[in-house]
Write a structure and sequence with these properties.
There is one protein chain. The protein is mainly α. It has two domains: 2-23 and 62-158, no CATH class; 25-57, no CATH class. It has helices at residues 2-10, 30-47, 64-77, 87-97, 105-111, 135-138, 146-158; strands at residues 81-85, 118-122, 125-132. Strand 2 and strand 3 form a beta hairpin.
Length: 165
Amino acid sequence: MLDEQILLPLGYTRNDTWLCDLLPETRLNTSQEKVIREKYNPLIEKYGLNPVTIPKRPTVFCDKIRAEEITQELMMSQATQLVLLGDIPIAQYLNYVADVDFKSLQEFIERYKYGKSVPVCINERIIDVLPLAHPRQIGALGAHSEKWKFLHKEWMKAKDNYNEL
């Protein structure tokens, strides 16, 4: 999904890309917690399985310390473009480190349009910020919005580097 629907239309490969998650470790979302509780946990004693010790997904992904770590890595990477996937990176990272006039992907597209980069000053450096929908949305994975899937598909069609797979 990331390769075909985000990197390829931008003309990038994973070798050209620095990837960063707001949460630097695996966390369980509510759907995963439910499956573990209902399907896996009842089998622990019966089969001698280990209990799941992966922490639950927090509400806040990016606090002050994590935002500073990400910014430091971003500056070291010498990246000129920052692609944000979904609302959480906008709300919990970008709004913390930069003065921007949008707090969500919806607000961004109302001001600029889906798939457009805007210059943003982060740590005294101008970086082109490109907010896109989260892969769950564009890939129609689980709960998703057809709107984001459609907008992303139209963006991919418009990119010069993209050839329909």
